[in-house]
Amino acid sequence: MSNCIFCKIVAGEIPAQVVYEDERAVAFRDINAQAPTHVLVIPRAHVASLAEASERGERELLGHVLDAAARVAAQEGLREGGYRTVINTGAGAGQSVFHLHAHVLGGRPLSWPPG
Q: 115: Cβ–Cβ under 8 A, 6 or more apart, which residues?
């Protein structure tokens, strides 16, 4: 999508601190970090949300994004101390960029419930 900020990051039109990428996903540091480590993992293809991905039957893509999130967590040294993976779906749940993305958060104790 031409006006999607995450699509522009994938296309290299907007700079980002990329920490992981493969043929289907890109991961980069969140500019509004909520933890010492806060990385966003996105599919290269534009999918607006988890709900849309499910409606489209994108099971393989969803699995790939979660696998990439686990790889990022390991790469960032979060496995031993633990980490949280979050996907917000819809504005009411806090989704502010309508391109599917998983947050990988860690590096400090994370309380529950989150908010």
A: 94
